[in-house]
Amino acid sequence: MSVWRLEVLRVWRTRRLVVLVGAFVVLGLGDPILTYYTPELLKASAGGIRVIAPAPTPAAAIAGFARSITQIGTLLAVVIGAASLAIDARPALAAFYRTRVRRTAVLVLPRYLTVAAATLAALALGTLAAGYETTVLIGRVSPVALAGGLGLEALWMCFALAVVTAWSALVRGVLGVVGCTLATLLALALPAAAGVPASWLPTSLAAGLGALIGAHHSVPLWHGVLVTASATVLLLVAATRRIQRRMA
């Protein structure tokens, strides 16, 4: 059995793909519904006080979904990614792989790409669900903007999983990898506070879907795309070399 087939079977049989798809689709269907009924919920809970709530808009619904996948979706992808990529979390299995795999890339890339493909498939289905529910309840969503935003969010997810891969080459336990990855992603907000233009940070892509739908992208999006794509490749190369030195 090839390594690729083994990783695909692992994602399927452990129900990780089902968890990812289920979570993203629920977020995609739920956020537009919440946006649609928020004005009524506010008025019902006002206790006789007059509340003026803005009418729900397609941009607000998609922005809510974008925030959910940036927070809940990224957390879920990091946890599942760490469970797959933390090779040394199970010493017996790690020893088994190392005695049968000659090239480190064969040990790292199939795991990364399989988890990334599962995450992106779930993200795509969730985005389609959000676009459909928003169109039905509130109003039409531009398919071009939705596809563009999906591409930005997909690149963010690939970057987050690359950070997971890099930490899995340094930390052995799954919980350690998850904690270090989340700390790294949260720390990406610090350069913006220090004066670095936010458009150059990978975090600019995390809100890309809401920005494109709402036409609020006043900064060039290609800045974040260039930096994030380059950082993803560099992190994967560094992780592969680190694991190679550990195997030597």
Element pattern in H and E: HHHHHHHHHHH
The fraction of residues in strands falls at: under 5%
| Poorly predicted tracts of residues | none
Rg is 20 Å
Shape: elongated
Compute the separation of the termini in Å.
Answer: 25 Å
What is the helix fraction of residues, given as a range?
Answer: over 70%
Number of domains: 1
Tally of helical segments: 11
Structural class, judged by helices and strands? Answer: mainly alpha
Largest sheet: none
Structure description:
The protein is mainly alpha-helical and 248 residues long. The chain has one domain (3-247). 77% of the residues lie in helices and 0% in strands. It has eleven helices and no strands. The protein has helices spanning 3-13, 16-44, 58-85, 91-98, 104-137, 143-168, 174-187, 190-193, 203-206, 208-214, 221-247. Helix 5 (104-137) packs antiparallel against helix 6. It is elongated, with a radius of gyration of 20 Å. The relative contact order is 0.15.
